[in-house]
Amino acid sequence: MKVYLVRHGETAWSLTGQHTGVTDIGLTARGEDQARALAPRLRTLDIAQVLVSPRLRARQTCELAGLQVGSVIEPDLAEWDYGHYEGLRSVDICHENPGWNVWDDGCPGGESADEVSARADRVIACRCRMPGTVVLFSHGQFCAALAARWIGLALVEGQHFPLSTASISLLGIEPRHDNRHIIALWNETQTDSKSCV
């Protein structure tokens, strides 16, 4: 079993560092090119299932990567709901709320860390236990949350797994070591490698 995590391509807000949860913005022209560049790498996989966040930027990335046909929208793959912090940058939030960290504190009017952790656990329990290769099109912080929970870490540890736009990561199982959950590949972009695990 393999679970590929694909972060959506570049958006205007990913460029500026604005928290983008429920705001449904599309890809930039560069983001569209990044998504198309994923296609040759992803088409070599023997894919059993493709699941996509309901947000436009993830759906566009899936489509431009050539995996829209047969894909399924999975609401639990949506990015963190940033509530009152939607559209703000972390540095601006910390001016108002010094010491704030989304991984510890969550977002007023949005999701708590516990709620995001529960969503990640649902995705793992319901969607990542199927045989074969699963590809998930999602978002930076939610993919990091999935990775942390996949290997049994507390959600707060997701802050140590940053992702570039249009990156591919791979969650797997090591059968030679009691089926230990592993991160087999992290944050690989088109410029990192021309091959796919």
From TrEMBL:
Pfam families: His_Phos_1. It comes from the Bacteria. InterPro entries: His_Pase_superF_clade-1 (IPR013078), His_PPase_superfam (IPR029033), PGM_Phosphatase (IPR050275). PANTHER family: BROAD-SPECIFICITY PHOSPHATASE YOR283W-RELATED (PTHR48100), SEDOHEPTULOSE 1,7-BISPHOSPHATASE (PTHR48100:SF15). This is Probable phosphoglycerate mutase.
